[in-house]
Amino acid sequence: MQNALRDYYRAFKQRAAWVRNDLLYVNELEKYEKRLIDEWDHAFGEMQDDLAEIKSLTEEEKAKAGRKLLSDIEKKDIRIRPKCEEAFVMRGSYHMLANKLKVGWHVDFFERLKGLLCT
User: Fold this and answer.
1) Is residue 10 within 8 Å of 96, Cβ to Cβ?
2) Looking at residue 33, what is its pLDDT?
3) What is the pLDDT of residue 112?
4) CB count, 10 Å around CB of 49?
5) pLDDT of 60-69, one tens digit each?
6) What's the pLDDT tens digit per position in 23-81?
7) What predicted TM-score, i.e. pTM, was given to this entire model?
């Protein structure tokens, strides 16, 4: 949890500096986030397929799969630009997307999101 908070904070600061200093192309952050979401979507789909094979899936197994998904995503190297080598930018950006409910780690993410939006 501590690492996630640190990555979020560092990515937030870095992205804010890029915006403040006008160092980004038009829609560059939005395009980057779309790439991150696309990569997450593939990994999330694989997790769903793997878990669909298990009968009577427990909440503990779902949580474990979600932690593995997060770990797998954090090991990827998806850069906003080729020379931006700071891994915290990607990891922190994923946490920002999770806060915006654009990505999630639990297999029931979409059902839980619908529940939140419908109440």
Assistant:
1) no
2) 99
3) 81
4) 9
5) 999 999 999 9
6) 999 999 999 999 999 999 999 999 999 999 998 999 999 999 999 999 999 999 999 99
7) 0.92
Cα 37 versus chain centre, distance: 7
CA 112 to chain centre: 17
CB 94 within 8 A of CB 73: yes
The structural domains of the chain, with segments of one domain joined by +, span: 2-118
**CA of 48: how far to CAs of 45, 69, 100, in Å?**
5, 10, 21
Token pair recorded at residue 84: 């931006």
By the 10 Å C-beta count (0-12 exposed, 13-18 middle, 19+ buried), 86 is classed as middle
The packing angle between helices 87-99 and 2-20, to 10°, is 100
**CA R_g for the chain:** 16
Q: Which two tokens stand for residue 32?
A: 């980057």
Token pair of 39 as six digits: 């990569």
